[in-house]
Amino acid sequence: MVKPINIVCLLSAGLLGMLGFTDHIGLSDSGPTPVHSPAEELGTFRLEPGLSIQLVAAEPLVQDPVVMTFDADGRLWVVEMRGYMRTIDGDGEKEPIGRVSVLEDTNADGRMDASTIYLDSLVMPRALALVPGGALVAENEKLWLTRDVNGDLKADTKTLVDAAYAGSALPEHAGNGLWRGIDNWYYNAKSRFRYRQMGTNWQRDSTELRGQWGISHDDQGRLYYNYNWSQLHADLVPPNYLSRNKNHAPTTGIDHGLTIDRRVYPIRSTPAVNRGYIPGTLDKEARLLEFTAACSPLVYRGKTLPAPYMGNVFVCEPSGNLIKRNVVGEQGVLLNAHDPHPGTEFLASTDERFRPVNLATGPDGALYVADMYKGIVQHKAYMTPYLREQTLARHLDAPINRGRIWRIVPTSWKPTKPANLSVASSAQLAGYLSHADGWYRDMAQRLLVERNDHRVVPTLLNLIHTGNNQLGRFHALWTLEGMGALQSAYLLPLVSDHNALVSSTAIRLLEPFAANNAQVRSSLAILLLKNWAKSTDKQVMQMALSAQALDQPAAQQLLANIVTKYGNMPLMRDAVLSSLGNMECAFLQRLWVLPAWKTGDASKQIFLEMLTTALIRKHDRAELTALLALLDVDKKAVGWQHKAVLTALSVQGKSANQMPVKLSAAPALLFRSYVNAAEAAAIGTLFDWPGHAGQTSIAQKKNPLTGDEQKLFAAGRQHYLTTCAGCHGTDGAGLNRFAPPLAGSDWVTGDEKRLALIVLHGIEGPISVAGKRYDAPNILPVMPAHSTMDDATITAILMYIRNEWGNDAGPIGKRTVGMTRVTSQGRVMPWKAAELIKYAVEANANTTSEK
């Protein structure tokens, strides 16, 4: 995976091709490829009808651009990574030759004609954010605060903010982004850090790990990012909510894959991808089949492009010389995306040095493209012999220090002079919070927060309570938050607001007030309990997330209502559990006696099992003793609740994740007839009592798992419940009209690579399991691909299903899923059973011949 700069996260791509051919040329030329001037490159583009692409800047004005952003007066700031891969061996990477430049259009003709070097002598600069009086700049793996003291657009001071910003010396594994979120925090890709200015200091906070290169947000503030192999992911909930409960590991909500579509459609041959020699990477015309370097997803929030483009997400693919367009849709609290024109990309080029690595929206509403214009995009750490040979043969190692910035606009578009927001009054900036273009709303919010001019507070409150623009009201709330000017009295009336976004935001912003004031907690609880049943899914989601701020009785009542009604939604289950930190036992006991929970269903079983798992992880002796007592009943009284909790205890026992809890005597539960020997042995590992040592009581299996593998097994159960149980059942027995059983299935216990192929790409048509043929309508016609899940998650699921329900296949190799993903690159259709059977036969034959 190569995301050096923002560039290719090519794990399987580096890229090559040939040049100067028409849309249908697919020949693979081994000779040198020509270098194009900006004017010549302009002729190589194919863009969606009705739009045009214009040159904004080119070398020598800009070189190796990897990140760009506009300031409040319409000037374009560009990070230039001039030290990246200057030779095939990456010589001189640590030389201080990178820089940050400020480009200006001084005559308003739409072309940048002046450049000021804001900061130079930088080592591999990779991120930029404009702040009062200067900029945050990430370079040499560190984060710096730079200041322009005299206003000449040149940095005068450079102060270290975070020596560990990047987290890795390898470009494709280093933090980047510095994207200002709607909540006034700066977020990053490939990083667990976020930053915020607090007075004169910069605060670093931990957050969820996101993406690889590039990050942006939509109109509702949801963060979007991606990975070289999976083009579009997003957060479905605000940051840092689902990770609050240390006893629960969420499996949804963060890092949600919007589409399993990995296909790309270059208009030139691309044989010089890093793994172009692997069958399935390229088609018969040597064109890349799927993403290998997806990066820099940008949500377009402007009005300059035609209406159908509003809210679309554009994704760069520098290894394929193209940019993909995704149309995003909403289904309740979920997001999905699709390619509106399969077979044709939004923008593609026949110039193999066209390397789109970063996107931005300007104050003019245009879509800007940073084109590194470089032959080598694969970092030296991942340069394969194949790619090296291709690169040298085609002279792609030269020239260096080129670069272009392009602008995409409607064909009839004319450039206009941008407003100088830096000199706008606070009242004028408040008006921009309701602007049609997201760029103006974001910039106005940022400037107002930075000015902290409290004279504008009445204007903002008037907008919030009487304004007709819902996005303006939304931004005004976060502006007040950033200024520290919020009061609970402003927010409580908005809990019942007609607009779901405003209402949800008010609930979220009330949390710190509720945490510190009993009256606010009481008022908020009354409102939430009154409104939850008539609220939208999004509002209920925020209520579940914010319930932690309430007193326990009210919180549990609200959460019980929510999980009873919405428990079939995995994301809602995770949201409820995230608010139950240290309340798991009390909440389980509440659900146990509720009339609605006397009758079980699959979703209730899953939630109760997940709740029990959190209780076990809490590791409280008194609560676990109470749990054992709750289960210790006469066999006739055993119901679905008991079985769900016993399953959780058994699974966690098999993983032996914690030191055993000391008991004064053996639990009577373990000797009940409804607890089988395997369950009793597994549960016994969780406890010590006189004459018994936990973690040694479970019987030795044929294929035992190590300690780390047992932990992966337990994690796999949680992912299985979220992802797979809806079709295969919580017990792996399969569900009629959905899916065949996994228990006793050779498809599960057999070849692990074959199983990984099924999960990665899906399978369709009839299939035989344990001698029985399954086909539609008795099962669904297709099991979908799960390629948006990362390797670790898939590995955990496979570890679990191969070693549960009597399956005893043993551990799965740590690299199996990752290598299978790489070697099956280009597979975009579900497998058929016959294909996989043939694969297994051929794989075994190859293995035998190699011995």
UniProtKB/TrEMBL annotation:
The keyword ATP-binding does not apply. Keywords: Heme, Iron, Metal-binding. InterPro entries: 6-blade_b-propeller_TolB-like, ARM-like, ARM-type_fold, Cyt_c-like_dom, Cyt_c-like_dom_sf, DUF7133, Quinoprot_gluc/sorb_DH_b-prop. This is C-type cytochrome. It comes from the Bacteria. It holds the Pfam family DUF7133. It comes from Fibrella forsythiae. The keyword Heme applies. Residues 711-805 form the Cytochrome c domain.
